[in-house]
Structures are given as structure tokens and as C-alpha cells.
Amino acid sequence: VQLVESGGGLVQPGGSLRLSCAASGFTFSNYVMCWYRQAPGKERELVAFIIIRNGSTYYADSVKGRFTISRDNAKNTVYLQMNNLKPEDTAVYYCNRWKINRDWGQGTQVTVSS
């Protein structure tokens, strides 16, 4: 299993970023794919998930209306479009399968600062 996150960076408040998660080594369509984030000194938290088979989504209250999760089944890739970013969105962002606590990738750093 390999999960490779990319697309992070430094952005000003109100800006946007699009994260990508390229997945391999498992049957992508069988899973619920999640984006998590971990800020310094805090526990990892669930940001959003998408049911790959039917596209249903869930968002944490803190990102609802600002973030959009999507997937490309042909590319085994999950995306997180992040708009109207706030300083409190600063964290390392990871993707993984729902309720599977292994095979974590390196994550991608998102820093929101002026």
C-alpha cells in the first residue's frame, strides 16, 4: 500500500490550495477515503471523507462550506480543494482509508499565514 500526498504549501488567509492523494496497492473502489490533518501539539483529526463507490461525502464542521473532497477512480486519486483558508487550517494533511491506522504517507504541509 502506498499513499502519496501532495499539493501543500504556504498561502495567505483567504487563499486556496488543492491537495492530491495518489493511492496504490489496494482496491480503491472498495474503500472510504479520508483526509486527516494534524496541527502541532494536537491529535490527528478527520477533515473529510468520500465513499469511493458512490461519491457520498462527509465534512467536519470546521471545514464545511470551504473544503471539497472528490475522487478520480481512473487515477486512484483523492483530492481536497480548500478555499477561504484560515490560519487554524495550518497542519500536515494526510489521506488514508477509513478506520485503518497504518500505511500512512508522509503527508503534505499546509501553512496559512500572512
Explain this structure to me?
This protein is mainly beta and 114 residues long. Helices cover 0% and strands 50% of the residues. The protein is built from no helices and 10 strands. The protein has strands at 2-6, 9-11, 17-24, 32-38, 45-51, 57-59, 67-72, 77-82, 91-97, 108-112. A 6-stranded mixed β-sheet has the order 2-10-9-4-5-6, with no helix packed on it. Strands 1-3-8-7 form a 4-stranded antiparallel β-sheet, with no helix packed on it. It starts with a strand and ends with a strand.
Range of helix content: under 10%
N-to-C order of helices and strands? EEEEEEEEEE
Widest beta sheet: strand line-up = 2-10-9-4-5-6
Average residue pLDDT: 97
Q: Classify the secondary structure makeup into a structural class.
A: mainly beta
Q: How is the biggest beta sheet arranged?
A: 6 strands, mixed
**Distance N to C terminus:** 37 Å
Q: Report low-confidence residues grouped into runs of 5 or more.
A: none
- Total strands: 10
Number of helices: 0
The general outline is globular
